[in-house]
């Protein structure tokens, strides 16, 4: 069974939206701070149970799948017909959207991973020798912002896919037109 461009775009859309949903829920479930418990010369931070770290990593995984599928969908030989990359990058619009999609995917990955790893470190390193600690959590807003950029990234991959489809059609029309002129 051959993979179609429509199936690839549905996969990119699904995982882009999934990454967005996981990121927004992770942002909303993140506690504002932990509870400080005084010990002998230390402060132990107790955090409420929350799914922020798991949801953050699920958002990252979904973003990576959407990005990898988006990237490969542009160069995949649909119906057994491949197009040289130089043909695709001849279109300035394609090149611009391709680069924006890559940049936004990297930015979204950074904005989701940073607070997720930070939150995981806060949860695992919860004993502080500074008696004035206020039991911090990851910076608020980064997960949500990363989730929105993740969704934007998936949309840019879809636009790049549509532009690649146009470039493919133009290329094959040129090739068929040359074949008709030469009689081959």
From TrEMBL:
Matching InterPro entries: DEAL/Modifying_wall_lignin1/2, DESIGUAL
Pfam family, one: DUF1218
TM segment ranges: 54-75, 87-114, 142-164
Localization, UniProt: Endomembrane system
Membrane-topology annotation of the record: Multi-pass membrane protein
Keyword Transmembrane helix set for record: yes
Position of the signal peptide: 1-26
One Gene Ontology cellular component: endomembrane system
Main location per the UniProt record: membrane
Domain of life, source organism: Eukaryota
Keyword Transferase attached: no
Keywords assigned: Membrane, Signal, Transmembrane, Transmembrane helix
Family: Belongs to the DESIGUAL family.
Protein name as catalogued: Uncharacterized protein
């Amino acid at each position: 069974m051959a993979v179609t461009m429509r199936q690839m775009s549905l996969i990119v859309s699904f995982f882009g939206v999934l990454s967005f949903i996981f990121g927004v829920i992770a942002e909303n479930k993140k506690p504002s701070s932990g509870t400080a418990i005084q010990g002998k010369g230390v402060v132990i931070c107790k955090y409420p149970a929350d799914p922020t770290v798991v949801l953050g990593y699920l958002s990252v995984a979904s973003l990576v799948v959407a990005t990898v599928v988006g990237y490969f969908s542009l160069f995949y030989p649909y119906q057994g017909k491949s197009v040289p990359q130089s043909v695709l990058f001849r279109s300035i619009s394609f090149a611009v959207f391709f680069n924006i999609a890559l940049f936004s995917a990297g930015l979204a990955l950074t904005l989701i991973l940073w607070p997720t790893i930070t939150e995981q470190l806060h949860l695992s390193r919860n004993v502080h020798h500074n008696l004035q600690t206020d039991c911090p959590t990851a910076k608020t807003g980064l997960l949500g912002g990363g989730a929105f950029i993740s969704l934007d990234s998936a949309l840019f991959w879809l636009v790049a896919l549509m532009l690649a489809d146009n470039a493919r059609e133009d290329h094959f029309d040129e090739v068929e037109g040359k074949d008709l002129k030469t009689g081959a």
